[in-house]
Design goal:
The complex is a heterodimer of chains A (about 325) and B (about 325). In chain A, about 45% of the residues lie in helices and about 10% in strands. Chain A contains twelve helices and seven strands. Chain A has helices at about 5, 10-35, 50-55, 75-80, 85-90, 125-140, 155-165, 195-200, 215-230, 260-265, 270-280, 285-310; strands at about 65, 145-150, 170-180, 180, 185, 205-210, 235-240. Chain A is globular. Chain B has a seven-stranded mixed beta sheet with strand order 3-2-4-5-7-6-12, with helices on both faces. In chain B, strands 9-11-10-13-14 form a five-stranded mixed beta sheet, with helices on both faces. A two-stranded antiparallel ribbon of chain B has the order 1-8. Chain B has about 325 residues and is an alpha/beta fold. Chain B is about 40% helix and about 20% strand.
């Protein structure tokens, strides 16, 4: 599988680069807006992890579904959510993905199968498992990708959810973004055993353990795993080794790690790796710069629109709570 | 009308709703063998193991998977066995099921029923006996139902299954074998949020729910022998609760007792008492009284367990004192 990068279609890789660039531009703009106080809530950047979101979602149909985490902007964009609506959500404005009622940690877009980000670590795992259980009951052929971080592997729902998916033979792809940090704590310092893939294998799941910064490798690996899901082989596990290049939130300077460590990790930045790969395949850097520029322009426009958008009507604070016993 | 038990009534309700709507399914531990209280007996034979699903002992994932399955278009009925065990799944209920619709801006609905039996059940001790219904009335997004009779356990469960909101459905473990006259046929629905005047009276109002209804009716019978007419109101649903039915009654009687099995402190009775005080304060003929468990864990030994119970005598004595004043 390590030579997958040599087999990938140039056009497909170029599209991956463009989507990764859109995610990168969105994250950089969102973090900046948070530091300036324009985004009032917490922003958890996925910079450095874009290849996973893109490589996984490229293998899903629009009606396939995903769940994600507090660090979920990339997954939403890769699944097809409009970044302009996402930015409005971060700004708490009308026309946001959740009408301004959820913010960054509760982005959802059911029209593209994005069943929701989540503010509670590991909480998306049982929900994804249930969505797959529902797909199996309804017989609609959908598969579900469940994104979570290495920190989530220490919570009970990780064990429960993997076991459940295995015993009910559900079409779930568990995707662990092994980014080395659980909030501001190094995951290794608080985690026993041999890592997420070893835990998954102990429950009987087939588990791949790969470099999550290599988008071609993620794409090729997931293609194979999703084919097995669709064939009815039951849940699959993918551990993607990566690195969280930013702090836990926009407000976290991450002083608990050396600048030299981070510097070294930037040498393995998925945007850089993919650009180099495309150049080896004959794509000019000027063309790649154009893709990055297009992403920057699109996000700048989303940012301007979000800042100009009206706040939601105050009455919406009481809508969509419940029908029976709704707020009076 | 048929004479059937509380247990048979909910069994019939679930079977009827599963026949009516193929999206309805049930999941929980031991359901394939009828469930721990027999409330699923025989269903797997009719509906198969996919729709009467035996799960691992994984409360968080039973609840969380039901949320996911509800989000994608099925209508799960979750069995938690004991409300005490459902505490292992509070994130999935309170942070996920109750909030998904709101925090996703109305894109999603979570039509699920969460059955979690409550109440003292001889010598079940501190982890199998609690009445935690008040907790869930505090959470926006949830409906909370506490059936007291077989007829209601059929009609309310059917309404809960048809409801598009998440419904916390709390049967009382001491009622499973209690029979009642239950309307026949699949059309017996009891609306959510409507109280029932279980006995009419003009001297004082006793508001109650779940198993405490039978205790309150016993007290009312004793009071009648002393010439006092108590009106007994079964709330049936705690959220939404039938505020108007209670206010109308207390406006007539001028006296209120709220009787609950749960711990009095911060119990749902406090909400009823505060509402009546706010709305009718100056018109009350006597102070409002709340009866319920002292704030102590429930003990195993029968005499110790009984120390915490509200009895018909305690309700009747309280009513007599209230009626003697004003």
């Amino acid at each position: 599988m390590s030579d997958a990068k040599h087999n990938i279609d140039v056009e497909r890789l170029r599209r991956h680069y463009a989507t990764m660039g859109l995610i990168r531009a969105f994250e950089d703009a969102a973090e900046q807006a948070a530091r300036e106080g324009k985004v009032t809530g917490a922003v958890h950047s996925s910079v450095g992890q874009e290849a996973i979101a893109v490589g996984v979602c490229a293998n899903l149909r629009q009606d396939d579904q995903i769940t994600t985490t507090h660090r979920g902007h990339g997954h939403s964009i890769a699944k097809g959510t409009d970044p302009a609506k996402m930015m409005r959500e971060l700004f708490g404005r009308a026309g946001g993905t959740s009408g301004g009622k959820g913010g960054s940690m509760h982005i959802a877009d059911f029209s593209v199968g994005m069943l929701g980000a989540n503010g509670v670590v590991a909480a998306g795992i049982p929900i994804a498992v249930g969505a797959a259980h529902g797909a199996k009951l309804l017989g609609n052929g959908r598969v579900v990708a469940c994104f979570f971080g290495d920190g989530a592997t220490n919570r009970g729902p990780f064990l429960e959810g993997l076991n459940w998916a295995k015993v009910f033979t559900l079409p779930v792809l568990f995707v662990c973004e092994d980014n080395a940090f659980a909030s501001t704590t190094r995951t290794k310092a608080v985690t026993a055993g041999d890592g997420p893939a070893a835990r998954a294998r102990a429950i009987g799941l087939h588990a791949a353990d790969i470099d999550g910064n290599d988008v071609a490798l993620v794409d090729a690996t997931v293609a194979e795993l999703v084919a097995r899901l669709r064939a009815g082989d039951g849940p699959m596990f993918l551990n993607c080794r990566t690195y969280r290049l930013r702090g836990h939130t926009a407000a976290d300077a991450a002083a608990y790690r050396d600048a030299s460590e981070v510097e070294a990790r930037w040498q393995h930045d998925p945007m850089k790796l993919t650009a180099e790969q495309l150049q080896r395949l004959g794509v000019a850097e000027s063309h790649l710069a154009g893709l990055r520029q297009a992403a920057t322009v699109r996000v700048a426009q989303a940012l301007a629109e979000a800042a100009a958008a009206p706040y939601p009507a105050r009455a919406t604070a009481f809508t969509d709570v419940q029908d029976v016993g709704a707020p009076a | 009308m048929s004479r059937i038990t509380y247990q048979q009534a909910c069994l019939d309700a679930l079977a009827e709703e599963m026949r009516r709507d193929p999206r309805v399914w049930a999941l929980g531990e031991d359901l394939g063998r009828g469930g721990v209280f027999g409330q699923y007996r025989g269903l797997v034979a009719e509906f198969g193991p996919e729709r009467i699903a035996d799960t691992p002992i994984s409360e968080a994932t039973i609840m969380g998977a039901a949320v996911g399955a509800a989000l994608v278009g099925t209508r799960p009925v979750v069995e938690m066995r004991f409300s005490d065990f459902a505490l292992c799944a509070v994130d999935e209920l309170v942070n996920q099921a109750a909030k998904a619709r709101f925090m996703f801006g109305g894109q999603a609905r979570v039509p699920m029923v969460i059955r979690q039996p409550i109440g003292m059940w001889r010598s079940s001790a501190a982890q199998h006996s609690q009445s935690l219904e008040g907790w869930y009335t505090h959470i926006p997004g949830l409906v909370v139902v506490t059936p007291a009779t077989a007829a209601d356990n059929k009609g309310l469960l059917k309404s809960a299954i048809r409801c598009d909101d998440p419904v916390v459905y709390m049967e009382h473990k001491d009622l499973w074998q209690v029979p009642d006259d239950v309307p026949d046929g699949p059309d017996h629905l009891v609306p959510l949020g409507k109280a029932r005047i279980a006995q009419a009276g003009s001297d004082c109002t006793i508001v109650t729910w779940s198993r405490m209804l039978s205790v309150a009716l016993q007290a009312a019978g004793a009071l009648a022998k002393d010439g006092l007419e108590a009106e007994v109101i079964d709330l049936r649903t705690l959220w939404p609760w039938d505020r108007q039915a209670v206010l109308d009654s207390v406006a007539r009687t001028g006296r209120l007792i709220v009787a609950q099995e749960a711990v009095v402190v911060s119990g749902f009775g406090a909400e009823v008492a505060a509402t009546v005080a706010e709305e009718l304060g100056p018109r009350l003929k006597a102070p409002i009284r709340r009866l319920g468990s002292p704030r102590a864990p429930i003990a195993y030994s029968p005499p110790l367990e009984d120390v915490l119970r509200v009895t018909a005598d305690s309700i009747a004595d309280t009513a007599k004192r209230l009626c003697a004043s004003g």
